[in-house]
Write a structure and sequence with these properties.
Elements (H helix, E strand, L loop, with lengths): L7 H15 L4 H18 L12 H27 L8 E6 L5 H13 L3 E6 L5 E6 L5 H20 L1
Antiparallel strand pairs: 1-3, 2-3
Helix pairs in contact: 1-2, 3-5, 4-5
């Protein structure tokens, strides 16, 4: 089974996302979802250096809930900023010092930041010690960096390191 599904979680997510995106469970969509769930992980396997090892599933669940909650709150805050006066916008680039060393933790952190409305991961230093984040609006870059480290980086270190 491991040869057909080298990454079963990824395969399950691909399968579910295909069906949800197409809003159909017809035989044709089930077959396409299955083909993608098998094909995409197999096709991308040579590009992965090593597999992620999740060390704490409880933290994964808590982090997932935190990210979903933050996405909802960020959408509300961003809507208020966009609908308000332009003078309230203070876009800023912030370098976030990274304590995480695991490549999967760093990639997950950059992805979470990008998924959260109002922030975008822009660059990472060659030595992976800092991540550049663009904030649509922030009054306190140090507070933004501290929040990212506490809410996302620390749990990711518990998960992957």
């Amino acid at each position: 089974m491991r040869t057909i599904f080298p990454t079963p979680i990824m395969s399950a997510l691909i399968f579910a996302v295909w069906l949800a995106a197409n809003q159909s469970v017809s035989v044709g969509h089930l077959l396409i979802a299955l083909a993608l769930a098998i094909g995409v992980p197999l096709a991308t396997l040579p590009f992965r250096d090593r597999r992620a090892r999740i060390r704490n599933w409880g933290t994964v669940m808590r982090l997932g809930a935190t990210v979903l909650w933050d996405i909802v709150l960020s959408n509300i805050q961003l809507a208020r900023l966009i609908l308000g006066p332009e003078s309230r916008l203070t876009p800023t680039f912030v370098w976030i010092p990274l304590d995480a060393k695991d490549e999967h933790a760093i990639i997950a952190l950059a992805s979470i930041i990008t998924m959260t409305p109002g922030t975008l991961s822009c660059d990472i230093t060659d030595d992976r010690s800092h991540l550049l984040v663009h904030a649509f609006s922030t009054d306190d870059p140090a507070d933004l960096a501290a929040g990212i480290k506490a809410r996302y980086e620390q749990p990711l270190r518990e998960i992957f390191e």
